[in-house]
């Protein structure tokens, strides 16, 4: 990998590990629905003009049905659930649970006939989902169980999004798809956000968290990821999947004083091993950002057996 490739890789890996911290801070004073609107609307204002100037929006709009489906499963539903979950769960735990997205994507690839499950992949899925169970069992309190389980839906959305891209939108420019999706999501949430405006002025930390989530973790992250794909290819670029959760944990522990126990480390380790076993032989996986998600891939590929969220 070139020096530029390494710099892009490190930048994207860190940036898409940052949203979990910013979300945790933001939801202290902003409702999840309003935060979804702010993030998508702000990013749409930044990326929309670029997409329009490059002429990549018009062909995307002709395929509005799959674009709308992608928007719902990759942004609209997952981001709302993730933001709600982080009202109760720590940012580091949310990041670790979302790391299971490649496992869901591997199951989806098998269910749709695009990949077969051999013994190694089955073992990987069992180990990975065992790691998720360990995290939920040892790191989640009983009254927070619903929030943790909602992240399973988030992971399913982050896995389904790339599947829609690869099956229905793979011939369209990635920047156009992402810009159109951000615009659509902002429009869908605008009526809800109008009734959830904060009653009091936001604190500086929340304002800067929202700005960072919108400008850095969404708009800038997608542009950098476009460049990373062009530099190293989609397959290598997906390795950020294993960097993002680690960044989320480090930031949560150092900045928010979140607890990281030995059981949490074991659960995360099992998830990573499971992901590697379940997706190892895939030649050209399609990433979904944690996440991040929360995020989704700017350039869809023909495979679905990897993630990140995105981040969220």
Q: What is the helix/strand order?
A: HHHHHHHHHHHHHH
Count, helices:
14
Mean pLDDT: 81
Structural class: mainly alpha
Number of strands: 0
What ranges have pLDDT less than 50 throughout 5 or more consecutive residues? 282-311
Helicity range of the residues?
Answer: 55-70%
Envelope shape: globular
**Whole-number count of domains:** 1
How would you describe the oligomerization state of the chains in this entry?
A: single chain
The main pleated sheet reads as: none
Terminal CA distance: 27 Å
* Beta-strand content bin: under 5%
Rounded to an integer in angstroms, the radius of gyration calculated over CA atoms is 18 Å
Structure notes:
The protein is mainly alpha-helical and 312 residues long. The protein has one domain (3-279). It has 14 helices and no strands. The protein has helices at 3-15, 19-26, 32-53, 58-61, 64-85, 91-98, 101-111, 119-139, 145-168, 174-193, 204-232, 234-237, 244-256, 262-279. Helix 7 packs across helix 9 (145-168). The protein is globular.
Index terms:
mainly alpha, 312 residues, single chain, disordered C terminus, 70% helix
